[in-house]
Amino acid sequence: MPIIVGEVGWPTDGDRNANIENGRRLQPRIASASDEQQGDTSKKGSIDVYLFSLIDEDAKSIAPGNFERHWGIFEYDGKPKYGLNLSGHEEDMNLVSAHGVKYLERRWCIIDPDATDLASLPRSMDLPVLSQIALPSA
Length: 138
Hints:
The protein is α+β, with helices and mostly antiparallel strands. The chain is built from two helices and two strands; from the N terminus they run βαβα.
């Protein structure tokens, strides 16, 4: 039976044990273990591993904890948090920064105090583009 690990990683902020050093220690072990053709004890073979997550997600809910936005191996702007070789081999193939990242203006949305369709507000507030909710009619 093939082994597939769906989400593995270490948060780098938001908790006392969530830090860059612990992430730096864990991630290379994951990459090398998945490439060592070890499999489980009953069947040898490679293990497919999917890292969680590529980038930090500033808009992610922190309801489970403050660490929830900090699972990425890259900062939100594409800079690697630490050196990491994902090839599974010894040669130096560290992550590289993203170039040309364009930042959008910060925007705030305010619910119109005169809005009449209040039943639609919870649904509209779940939309990824918050500018779609009722805005003040200045």
